[in-house]
Amino acid sequence: MEGGRVLTHDQALSLLQAAREESTKLGVPMSFAVMDPAGHLLALIRMDGAPWISTDVAQGKAWTAAAYGAPSAAQKAKMEPMPNFATAVTTMTHGRFTPQTGAVPVYSDGRLVGALGGSGGTGQQDEDVCAAAVTASGYTLS
User: Fold this and answer.
1) CATH number at residue 123
2) CA neighbor of 134 nearest in space, from 30, 14, 50, 39
3) Coiled-coil stretches, from where to where (predicted)?
């Protein structure tokens, strides 16, 4: 892996391909989004049969993982006792903050270079597929 500050387009596409392969093994069609560390969309895919809303949900989860440099599940756990605050943050970020399980950060040489989010399965399936894709692509989760 190149130790760049952000993922290149080709690297983002490779992450999507790895995620597609993992999702296919699981037998659950999903959508996947790759964000840069600032939460800008780099690449997006919706597999045949994935729910239509899953592209938006995958982007929100990936944005959240990129924003915090941690799995989106961490924000879910943090926000559960504070639903009003979670709603306020979602509103302030124009709907991007999505504190739900299903996205992981992407690190290269200890540096946050992006995030991969998924939607279409259970939250845990989404996160497991994303984590496996990140690892298979030669990146780390922290």
Assistant:
1) 3.30.450.150
2) 14
3) none
Upper half-sphere CA count for residue 10 (Cβ side, 13 Å): 3
State yes or no: pLDDT of 1 exceeds 50. Answer: no
14 within a domain of the structure (yes/no): yes
> Using CA atoms, how far apart are residues 2 and 90, in angstroms rounded to an integer?
33
Q: Specify whether the CB–CB gap between 110 and 118 falls below 8 A.
A: no
CA–CA separation, 38 vs 100, rounded Å? 19
For residues 120 and 107, what is the distance between their CA atoms, to the nearest angstrom?
24
73's enclosing H/E stretch is helix 72-79
Structural domain boundaries enclosing 114: 9-50+104-142
Distance CA(98)–CA(62), nearest Å, equals 8
pLDDT tens-digit map of 45-70: 999 999 999 999 999 999 999 999 99
- Cα pseudo-dihedral 32, 34, 40, 46, rounded to 10: -30
C-alpha dist (Å) from residue 35 to 11, 86, 104: 11, 21, 11
- By the 8 A CB rule, do 61 and 117 touch? yes
